[in-house]
Design brief:
Layout lengths: L16 H15 L10 H8 E5 L6 E8 L1 E5 L8 E4 L14 H7 L6 E5 L2 H10 L1 E5 L5 E9 L7 H7 L10 H10 L4 H5 L6 E6 L20 E3 L10 E6 L3 E9 L9 E8 L1 H8 L2 E11 L2
Parallel strand pairs: 2-12, 3-6, 9-11
Antiparallel strand pairs: 1-13, 2-13, 3-5, 4-5, 6-7, 7-8, 9-12, 10-11, 10-13
């Protein structure tokens, strides 16, 4: 039976509601709420100001996860750093359909738009999939890049393509498995990446070292508390209860979107930054429960 109040949600009493409130506060003004309580009243705030609404039946929500990669990089190319991350082409307008990934690579169509160079083509590709990246430059400085647009072509999974080729079964197809295939088949990497015609452009962000990357609301997302959703199903800024095997049950906030995150019950969990966050995110692909907390009135 659907919960009639947040108190009836399984696992609700055990959550850290103050942590959820801190994440909610990042975008609360954009959601239309500015009268937030202190952390001691966080649980009562969510119980008294919101009503639970099941998005899909329990067990029908589909969760994946994402993260902010951290890569060694250089502002100039050399034998080690020879795979570029690019800004948008001159005059590019959001929503415009531009050249495919294959055409961009074959024609070197983004020459002059390089922001920085990383060590491998697959890591540059995976940074595009995540939509943000933290670069560690040779002098130790960090450079943060965020999403600046895409070429308008549909996203196609290279993991699904490798499954189609019988490289691995679906349960074992992770980013690390893709990396291993690329190491074992260096001459075939470009052709595999070209399977996905979508191409993401970046921009340099001025963010503190400890901040998460920017989400779709233009504010930093919070590790373990920010969720990417389909905004046509769940309004951005909304609190959302998530119960995902392998991740846990907790209150999160819908603060991001993703090109593959479409439909009711679809959620992408932000894990954090760096290699360990990437390992955790890559292992999450599960069915669970999703409950929207809808503001009363």
């Amino acid at each position: 039976m659907s919960p009639r109040s947040a108190r009836e949600i399984a696992g609700w009493a055990e959550d850290d509601h103050a942590a959820a409130l801190a994440a909610f506060a990042v975008t609360a003004d954009l959601y239309g709420m500015t009268d937030l309580p202190g952390p001691q009243e966080a649980r009562a705030f969510f119980e008294e100001r919101f009503d639970p609404v099941e998005i899909v039946p329990p067990g029908a929500a589909h969760f994946t996860a994402y993260y902010e990669p951290e890569l060694a990089a250089s502002l100039t190319p050399d034998d080690r750093f020879c795979h570029a991350l690019y800004g948008p082409p001159p005059g590019f307008a959001p929503g415009e359909i531009w050249h495919s990934r294959t055409a961009i690579r074959a024609g070197d169509l983004l020459r002059g738009q390089e922001i920085a160079w990383v060590e491998s083509a697959i890591e540059a590709f995976l940074a595009q999939v995540q939509g943000s990246v933290r670069l560690r430059l040779p002098d130790g400085r960090a450079m943060r890049l965020g999403f600046a647009g895409k070429n308008g072509h549909p996203y196609r999974s290279i993991g699904a393509e490798l499954i189609r080729r019988n490289v691995s079964v679906p349960a074992e197809m992770t980013p690390d498995r893709i990396r291993r295939w690329c190491r074992e088949n260096p001459g075939e990497v470009d052709a595999l990446l070209d399977h996905n015609p979508s191409f993401v452009f970046f921009r340099v962000l001025d963010l503190p070292e400890g901040s998460g990357p920017l989400g779709a609301m233009g504010r930093p997302v919070v590790p373990g508390r920010s969720l990417a959703v389909d905004p046509e199903v769940i309004p951005l800024g909304s609190p959302v209860w998530v119960d995902c095997p392998g991740f846990g049950a907790r209150l999160m906030v819908a603060q991001d979107i993703g090109s593959a995150i479409k439909g009711a019950g679809r959620g992408d969990l932000f894990i954090g930054s760096g290699a360990e966050a990437g390992r955790i995110a890559g292992a999450i692909n599960a069915r669970g429960a999703m409950v929207l907390l809808r503001r009363r009135g």
